[in-house]
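Help wanted!
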Amino acid sequence: MLELKDVHTYYGNIHALKGISLNVQKGEIVTLIGSNGAGKTTTLRTIQGLIHARHGSITLEGEELTKIPAHQVTMRGVSQSPEGRLIFPRMTVLENLEMGAFTRKDKDGIKSDLERVFTVFPRLKERIKQTGGTLSGGEQQMLAIGRALMANPRVLLLDEPSMGLAPILVEQIFNIIGELNKQGTTILLVEQNARMALSIAHRGYVLQTGTIRLQGSATNLQEDDEVRKTYLGEH
Amino acid sequence: MQLVRRFLPLVIGIYLLLFFGPLAGFDFFRIVGEIYNKPSLLLQQLINGLANGSIVAIVALGYTLVYGIIELVNFAHGDVFMLGAFMALTVIGATGVTETSTASEKLTAALLAGAAAIIFCGVINVIIERFAYRRLRNAPRLAPLISAIGVSFIVQNIGLFWGGLRSFFPIMGVNSAAPKAFPDLIGRVDVFKDWFGLDLPITLSTKELMVIVVAAALMVGLRLLVQYTKIGKAMRATAENRDAAKIMGIDIDRVISFTFLLGGALAGAAGLMFGLYNNTVVFTMGFTGGLRAFTSAVLGGIGNITGAMFGGILIGLLAAFSDQYFSSRWTNAWVFAILVTVMVFRPTGLMGENVGQKA
Ligand SMILES: Nc1ncnc2c1ncn2[C@@H]1O[C@H](COP(=O)(O)OP(=O)(O)OP(=O)(O)O)[C@@H](O)[C@H]1O
Ligand SMILES: [Mg+2]
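Answered by r_m:
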């Protein structure tokens, strides 16, 4: 469904992605793990079109995404909960969620998706009139995920949804991600928390300094010695 | 001790003001005496200040809108306001109306001039953004600022050139740099006396009424647009977080263009209002008027729409008060003294919030 072929991305002279190839099939959760600075966020930003790849190609169901501007990538069905959450601090929770559905015209669909977000995150419903900037970190994370869902995307990109959350909330967020996937959302999940990510994903890729180091089914990766040592902290 | 430390600067400030203020027209006891003897004059100046301030506020909105969205002080904005006044004057000249024409002829001419100035300035502003600022959007902050100063000079010179085209536009008069008479299409009918038969010691002329009503309508309209329409929400989103706005599917280039269109249109409307109210326009009015408008925007908290409106009106009132009671020579000094004082104690302006890009 989503396919990256030999993608190279640069920040000025810094060669951040050195030929990434990966794919996400319809209905899958695929996780991208790797240590700090490996290029996970850069991969998601490149897919979204926030930065453009210098070489390589990105396609969504055969449609080229490589060179088109970010807003058009969104219109073609990619949305994300970005690193740092990037919620709109002076807009209310409801306005933030409405912004997620910015490109949509189907009023009924938007309404039912809003209901779905509120079912998944009842906390957001309680705080519907509060401005985004005054939410707690965890609530902001929920808002960022909820906002991405409001786009009713074909592929949902999640950049470290567990960041800064209490362990119990992490568990809850991962349950929700699994649930969303069961309801049919295709997900590319970037995580530091490799253990949790591999526990809900179908497949995974291990990224190291801009290249794919390992790939395989989640079960295989969980049993891989190198993964266990480096990313799962086992000895 | 704490209390003394807190109020000491204030006490010293008041002392200095009473002592040295008279040098710059601020003679406290004389002013109190004048107000006591003729309070209606103060009210009259409030009305004048409100009218002048309304025009300043409309121009200030253009600074604040652009700053809010791309954090650029668009120095050329004041000069676009001047172009608006010139466009209005040119159109009025072309329609051939004079102060003795019928009311409906005058109204038609004013509406035509307004439409022309609004469209012209909106489009000019979009072009300025496209060619002078867009490529510099991710450059260090100083680069677009210098570019803006350059555009300001260019636009000012376009005004100077335009003012010299007397063979095409006789209404421009003989000297390109000289102030140009702007036909008085509204006249000075006293609303209180001639419409309502009230015999008050103060007057509210139809001109002032027009300026205040039009400005208020524009401000309310802008507020509603930004708050409730789709493009308004896209503007807010782009202002708050550009990357997030892109992820939402917002074409930020279009949103920024639209913001310049809006700011330019407001400047065009303000240009016409200025001409109709003051009956004289000159190619440097964008510099002086722009500086005051920019000051208003900063005073209110740049980036904040309500702040710009209040800042503009506050500065209009202050200027009118200073013209009457201090000395018009010192008005600019007082306006900027107030600005500096407010900035020292409230760097974000009167209504500025301290919410950064990152939540
Ligand atoms: N704007 C930028 N300018 C220059 N270099 C950058 C920029 N953003 C990222 N990089 C570099 O690109 C590399 C990949 O960064 P990226 O943010 O993709 O890492 P990451 O895998 O998401 O790390 P983390 O787990 O810490 O979020 C890093 O070496 C980083 O320093
Ligand atoms: Mg990252």
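OP: Thanks! One thing I noticed: Residues 18 and 28 of chain B are 7 Å apart (CA to CA).
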